[in-house]
Specification:
The complex is a heterodimer of chains A (344) and B (513). Chain A is an all-alpha fold and 344 residues long. Chain A has a domain of 214 residues. Chain A has 13 helices and no strands. Chain B has 16 helices and 21 strands. In chain B, the strands form four sheets. In chain B, strands 13, 16, 17, 18, 19, 20 and 21 form a seven-stranded mixed sheet that branches. The radius of gyration of chain B is 24 Å and the shape is globular. Chain B starts with 5 loop residues before the first strand and ends in a 20-residue tail after the last helix. The C terminus of chain B is likely disordered. The chains are: A mainly alpha (344), B alpha/beta (513). The interface between A and B is medium-sized, with 19 and 32 residues.
Chain lengths: 344, 513
Amino acid sequence: MSLLSPVIAVVLTAVVGAALFAALGKDPLSALQVFFLEPFHGTRALTELALKSTPLILIALGLALCYRSNVWNIGAEGQFLMGAIGGGGLALWVTTEAIPMSPWAFFPLVIVAGALAGAAWAGVVALLRDRFNANEILTSLMLVYVANYFLSWLVFGPWKDPDGFNFPQTVSFASQTELPRVIRGMRLHWGSAVALLAAGGMWLFLFRTFAGIQLQVGGPAPAAARYAGFSSHAAIWTTLLTSGALAGVAGAFEVAGPMGQLTPHVSTGYGFTAIIVAFVGRLHPLGCILGSGVLSMFLIGGELAQSRIGLPSALSGVFQGVLLLSLLACDTLIHYRPRWSGTR
Amino acid sequence: MTAPRLQLEQISKRFAAVVANDQVSLSVQPGEIHSILGENGAGKSTLMKIIYGALRPDAGRILWNGEPAQIRSPQEARALGIAMVFQHFSLFDTLSVAENVWLGMSSSISLQQVKDGIRSKTAEYGLELEPERVVHTLSVGERQRVEIVRALLAEPRLLILDEPTSVLTPQAVEKLFVTLRQLAATGCSILYISHKLDEIRALCHQCTVLRGGRVTGSCDPTVESNASLSRLMIGAEPPRLVHREATPGQLALRVNALSLEKLDRFGTDLHEVSLDLREGEVVGIAGVSGNGQQQLLAAISGEDPRAPDAAIELFGQPIGRLRAGARRKLGLHFIPEERLGRGAVPTLSLAHNMLLTRNESLRFLGWIDRQALKHQTASIIERFKVKSGGPGAVARSLSGGNLQKYIVGREIDAVPKVLVVAQPTWGVDVGAAAQIRAELLALRDAGTALLVVSEELEELFEMTDRLHVMARGRLSPSIGTSAATVELIGEWMSGLWPTGPEDGPGASIGEFP
């Protein structure tokens, strides 16, 4: 039944969406078609869907690991941005030094750069939690803003393109830093395959290794973790560093892939959207893949709705919110029955 | 003849996979103390929940004073005059006795009226309970008294008690029985759920036996013997435990004057606890729960590694600061009293739960050999007759007794050098309890040192070679079990042992008169 809950939630979201379209004076059916069918129409649309899903899958995998072990990392957005800075910085260096290399040689390097930067940023959260028992929900969230301003400082300051008419952006990266494309002419890059491999790896780790099982004990049953003698320090560090690294890789892919340069607007909120993905995906690696498909459908559907039928682009945010609320409601109402009782 | 106070006719209740109650009929007369006897999973709790309105039966009807009654909620049950005292208390630690009682009442009554009501009820029944005291300062026996007084204030016509004596000293049990007999004499009927045969024979007028959801017998317990009652309950007499003379070997576990401050506000400080445990012997710790057993066990198991290193020694090696995993590697295994959430992770399968304490199925880099793990789990399920959906079943899906069998089995199967057990047979049925005790004794005969903490004196007398008693964070000297009597141990449970603790402030000796 709890596996059915996300399905019910998606259906509910569609129903609420239809009502919303009708209220805005649009034909609900054709609007829903734009949202739910157009993103799947044709090769280009499908590759765009996969492209948007890639960062969501990577980030959601790390978050699922965190949430399974009761570590509430809300700041994947910041780790994503730091990964973008790490990957972007590497690409910028290769570009300005004009280092000759094949894109296939750059590919693993940019993964490492993004992972290190993201993990370092999440490491700050882990240190604060482990050393000072600071709540990771607050620290990880606040570090998002720090990362954001750090990125702004870089692109407004030292990394600004000297010939960029003072726009806050770096130079466009050289072609050797571009992620290899899966299909010629489409933006989908091989990073998407890395995301799928990461999902497989996460599945093996969670369900086939002792370390994975250990991490999942501390979440639902901290007393059992103490009883077994599993270290809660190790759990904090492992989960935060892993999720930080995955979010960082997602950020690096975004700048070395579709963006091709660093701007203050690297992210469209992937780090926060991925939280919804993780829960829609029931904190399961395969679920994360499906969940990111649904959420990127909303992202793309929102853009299409804006250009095709003149609906505000904020709609995709509304859809995300409705989806999360319906999911939480379904999860609760599947296990509990509301009773209306008057006050006596 | 007057109509029975309560009459159940052909009550059936089915859950997804199991029939919890199958055409159960019984009747309780006014003023009758009626016991419901049955092993775990026999359907006792389900039946009580139906009577108390927390569950609706699928079929059958309930007659109250001869009239058909629909009990749709606990509120309706209370309105009819049905009160229930649950096994687990629902009291707020930070509120006073009167405030706790007040919480469940209608808002038109003032706190002062509640206090007066408590005073008059306690005077009427000779119970000692001060309405102004804050609940966290009360002993477990006193807390139960709060629940009973709360029930009495509702002037019940039927009182349901769910295993009320599991937390009481023998003396406190006697006192409870006096109260219950007095209450029955006023015409109130009592439904008494228990698996303790002695108590049922001493207290109850009528007995209905449930097995597998059906009524298998109904008898007058005063003329039955323990053996005949247990035959009705499980269909056979439990095998007699053969307790051979212990031959203690070398010193395995030593606790050296361990003093430890409590971790949480409602815990108990440990004062100078000393204990020796040798290979091949079973040492028991008796005492009412909440007297520091939890704190001592956590310090020994390594869940609480704050003890000074030398305060706990395992085969001469100081281990006070080691975590539980490190101590387990040295051969010290532990069975906690909470099964779900401590001894097992509710959301993980039985196979994965093996990995909490067992690592035989781990390969290079922590890779899990699933075949090996499955075999290991299946063998424990089979050997300890754990009723479950197999190694893949999640721990949460097992009944409490079956999960206990699984956890005890998992630790016994490890053949530890030292095994520390809390409440080894808590909530398991008579047959399984006998098996667990026999397996533990077999482990002792093979040379394992066993420390058993239990609230069931009967069990301790049956299993142990030496006994300590724990009271208010102190541990009594040990006494050979063959030399101990129930009366003596009961006295020690109040903190009165020969070398006795000094009377500090707050040490109210004679709390369980």
